[in-house]
Amino acid sequence: MEGLLDHMLRDTLTRVGGVDRCVSEFIRITDRLLPRRVFTRIVPELLTGGRTHAGVPVRAQLLGSDPQCLAENAARLAELHPEGIDLNFGCPAKTVNRHRGGAVLLDEPELVGEIVAAVRRAVPARLPVSAKMRLGNEDRGRMLDCARAIEAGGASELVVHGRTKRDGYKPPAYWDQIAAVREAVAMTVVANGEVWTVEDARRCLSESGCTSLMLGRGMVADPGLALAVRADLMGQGAAPLPWDDVVPLMAGFFAQVRRNVATRHQAGRLKQWLHYLRRRYPEAEETYQRVRTINAPDELALTLFGRALDPKTPPADEAEGLGVDADTEVDVENDLDADAVRAPDTDQQQDRDTLIAA
């Protein structure tokens, strides 16, 4: 999720547990071969074995429209050993679409297929190549053509967001249309879009016929959502993550923000997350109103956490005591856009279920 779910929030949310895999925010590819430092700046997990602190693998995502340039950059990215490479055909942002990136390419299924095929040829066979798409650009007329082109190009997995670019993020998401895509291809299809609660997840899986979900904004608003969905799929009840456990997560996140983000933007990053948390927690609404006019990072940290959170000091593992398990597996889109949970298989244990985080 560009501008929201970066490496700092990925680190924070995966500490809670329930996430099997993350997808990075997109790396924009235009007309040149990017230096390795660009990939590691956007996906610093590449420097730590391609995993978050909690041990969750991260798949790096590329966005562009030039098959050859994307292939060359994918080959360089592959040298850094990501968990896989994902291709973005779903971003609805006007600035991105204006430069022939994201969902606008869904009007050109032939080009979409060429991009996937070029990237697939450019990287080692062992490295998974996946893609994300919406139901279409202005309409759904070429939805199935695009999905088939992505499969023919060699992708092993496709995340489908249940809205067109024109739909934006306006509810509802059309999960039944994801079912049409799933029936048209043999590769794994992951359902995405408008999953905010366990009930949403249950309905999305039922209507789409998928066995995996990608969680995006829903997990930003409710950091315990992945664990709750996983527990529900196992037929178990799951207590919601209490606000008192969310506060230390926010402190750990803000400590990272203070080390990595320009001072003038630091308060805005924390308030951005608080804004999403208001959807799930009444306490977040009260907290947001209390700090919304505070822009000085030290004052904000003192008000919320009782300490300044020295930007030169690495944050303590604030997740300790929250029941975080580095071995726990759970996809988080504007997509921190991607979330996947796999429904129970009568022949397999739930530990093979998937919940992806983007």
From TrEMBL:
Recorded GO MF terms: flavin adenine dinucleotide binding; FMN binding; tRNA binding; tRNA-dihydrouridine16 synthase activity
Q: According to the UniProt entry, which residue ranges have a biased composition of type Basic and acidic residues?
A: 339-358
Name the cofactor(s). FMN
What keywords does the record list, in alphabetical order? Answer: Flavoprotein, FMN, NADP, Nucleotide-binding, Oxidoreductase, RNA-binding, tRNA processing, tRNA-binding
Which sites are catalytic? 91 (proton donor)
Q: What is its EC number?
A: 1.3.1.-
Enumerate the residues marked as the site Interacts with tRNA.
28, 88, 169, 269, 271, 276, 292
InterPro entries, alphabetized = Aldolase_TIM, DUS-like_FMN-bd, DUS_fam, DusC, DusC_C, tRNA_hU_synthase_CS
Composition bias (Acidic residues) maps to 326-338
**Top-level taxon of the source organism:** Bacteria
Describe the reaction catalysed, as an equation. 5,6-dihydrouridine(16) in tRNA + NAD(+) = uridine(16) in tRNA + NADH + H(+); 5,6-dihydrouridine(16) in tRNA + NADP(+) = uridine(16) in tRNA + NADPH + H(+)
Where along this sequence does the record place binding of FMN? 61, 132, 161, 192-194, 216-217
Tell me where in this chain the DUS-like FMN-binding domain is found: 1-227
The UniProt transmembrane annotation reads: none
The record's section on Pfam families has: Dus
- UniProt entry tagged with the keyword Oxidoreductase: yes
Please give the residue ranges the record annotates as the region Disordered: 309-358
Family listed = Belongs to the dus family.
Role of this protein: Catalyzes the synthesis of 5,6-dihydrouridine (D), a modified base found in the D-loop of most tRNAs, via the reduction of the C5-C6 double bond in target uridines. Specifically modifies U16 in tRNAs.
Report the protein name in the record: tRNA-dihydrouridine(16) synthase
Q: Which organism is it from?
A: Roseateles aquatilis
